[in-house]
Amino acid sequence: MSGSAQGRAAGIEVRSIDYVPLNERHGKLWHLGPLWFMSNAQIATLAVGLISITGGGNLIWSLLAIVAGTVLGTFFMAFHSAQGPQLGLPQMIQSRPQFGYVGALLVWLFAYVQYAGFNVFNSILAADALHTTLHGGVKPWVLAVTVVALVIALVGYDIIHKAERILTYVFLVVFGIFTVGILLTLHYPAGSFDLGAFKWTPFLAQFGVVAGYQISWAIYVSDYSRYLPPDVTVRKTFY
Q1: What does the pLDDT look like over 10-51, one tens digit per residue?
Q2: Running DSSP on this structure, what letter comes out for residue 193?
Q3: Helix (H) or strand (E) holding 35
Q4: Number of other CB atoms surrounding residue 169 within 10 Å
């Protein structure tokens, strides 16, 4: 057995930025659902969803801005994800034909700055949440969540998909309970569902942030679909 086959059998991603051969393709198409659901259903997304409300918008127009921004942003993200099984390459490598070998470094730099910021933002939010619920201090929790994330990232593709599936099931149960509780007990402020209370600034701010949040995934989404066999088809991967 080759080293790459041994690595994949052990669950460790060994291809890095390399092309994934057809004999190493594995996984199921539906695994993309929990992966991207859980990538978005997290604390940072909750913070992003408050932009309109904190800017003076009401609930109904905030929800419409979020839905519209999500649909637009996901449209572009899904097209890039559909390239993964067909090309078997990471998104950043795919950008070389469009930008050139050197020009693609600009895309890499943009991605590096963006996701360094995401990691800092998400780690602090996670640590704050854990400190609030379990105590222990923010800094130790930052270290703990960073170590867990680092281990998952080093092992790679398979464990990332598995972790996101487990987290999806937990999320649906926990936040399903929260949602039912909120719907039964929450008192909405006056005008929350007034369609006549439209305000351009909070609506466009919420729409732009949500659309940008989704589009920001587009520069590396095919990294998490490129191990799928190409016969899953572009249409099914897109959906």
Answers
A1: 568 888 888 899 998 988 999 999 998 888 887 778 888 889
A2: T
A3: helix 32-40
A4: 11
Tokens representing 172?
A: 């649906």
Cα–Cα distance between 79 and 234 in angstroms, integer? Answer: 8
Give the tens place of pLDDT for each residue, 115-164: 888 888 888 888 998 999 999 899 999 999 999 988 988 888 889 999 99
How many angstroms separate the CA atoms of 73 and 142, rounded? 30
Nearest Cα to Cα of residue 205 among 43, 66, 70, 60:
66
| Cβ count near 43 (within 10 Å) | 14
How far the first Cα of the chain sits from its last, in Å, is 36
- Identify the CA nearest to 18 among candidates 27, 8, 33: 8
Nearest-angstrom CA–CA distance, 201 and 198: 9
Tokens standing for residue 16: 């890095």
Three-state SS string over 201-234 comes to: HHHHHHHHHHHHHHHHHHHCHHHHCCCCCHHHCH
Site of tokens 């996670």: 126
| Amino acid letter for position 188 | Y
